[in-house]
Every structure is written in C-alpha cells, then in structure tokens.
Design brief:
The protein is of the alpha+beta class. The protein has 3 helices and 10 strands; from the N terminus they run βαβββββαββββα. Strands 1, 2, 3, 4, 5, 6, 7, 8, 9 and 10 form a 10-stranded mixed beta sheet that branches.
C-alpha cells in the first residue's frame, strides 16, 4: 500500500547551483542534506527541505551514460519524477502493473535511502514514478533519517 508522497524530484545540471540560483530565491532559507553518490543509478542526489511544501530531491548525472544526463536541458525540462513510500514493494509493483505501469527494472538498494530499495515505473501517460521502501519495511541509517524520512 502507498504510505505517503515521499518527494518530488528534479533533474538538474548542478545540485548546489540549483539550490543557490532557484530554490533559495524562491523559498528563502532551505535545508539541504548530504549529497550522495549512487553508482547503481549513476547519479548524485540531495534532498532539500523547504519551509513549506514537500521534500525536494535534486538529481544530478554522475556519468555520461546516466539516464538523467539526457533530461537536463531537454525540452522535457527538470521535473523528473514523483516518489511514493510503500510498505510492501512487491505488492505495490503488482498493483501498478495491473494499471499498465511498466517497471523499468527490479528494485535495487539506493544510497540516499540508507540501502532501502527503490524502483522506477513508467505510467501509460509516460510519467515516471519512483517507489521507495518505507522505514517500517527496512531500518534506515541515522545519517539519512533527518532529512529524507
């Protein structure tokens, strides 16, 4: 079952520059978490907490063959995906598949979530959804807990 909206993600060319030139002028002071390198996803990510609104994930390509590299500067723009936290990854994937959503791989551990598994799905409308295992499903490290729980 979907527990809650976890975050909204933007694909960006440079995490720190995006925070300084867009998020801070828009929201004022923001809390930026640690920047994580994820070799499985070939990205660098950071979570930003704004005074009002949902948690924001900034995703930067970490390699030329990163899937994010194509999005940055494309016509599609920066909105990358919406992420939902789920208690039962396999059951939730099965429900999405019944709605004709296509998993883009198998669930894999993610550095930014303390090893909790993630999976991306493409909807029939061509929207990208990320699922992340809930804290209930897997214990999370205290380093990550403060900003992305």
């Amino acid at each position: 079952m979907i527990e809650r909206l976890h975050h909204i993600a933007y694909a960006v060319a440079d995490i720190r520059e995006y925070v300084d030139t867009f998020l801070k002028p828009l929201f004022g002071e923001v809390e930026i978490g640690e920047i994580f390198s994820d070799p499985i996803q070939k990205v660098r990510v950071a979570f930003v907490a704004a005074p009002s609104g949902p948690l924001i994930e900034l995703v930067e390509a970490a390699a030329d063959d990163s899937p994010v590299k194509k999005l940055v500067g494309s016509v599609r723009g920066g909105l990358y995906h919406v992420c939902y936290e789920v208690d039962d990854m396999e059951a939730t994937i099965a429900r999405f598949r019944k709605l004709r959503c296509l998993p883009l791989g198998s669930p894999v551990p993610a550095v930014a979530f303390g090893g909790r598994r993630i999976v991306f799905l493409m909807t029939p409308q061509r929207d990208l959804i990320e699922l992340v295992e809930s804290v209930k499903a897997v214990s999370m490290s205290s380093t990550t807990k403060s900003i992305c729980e």
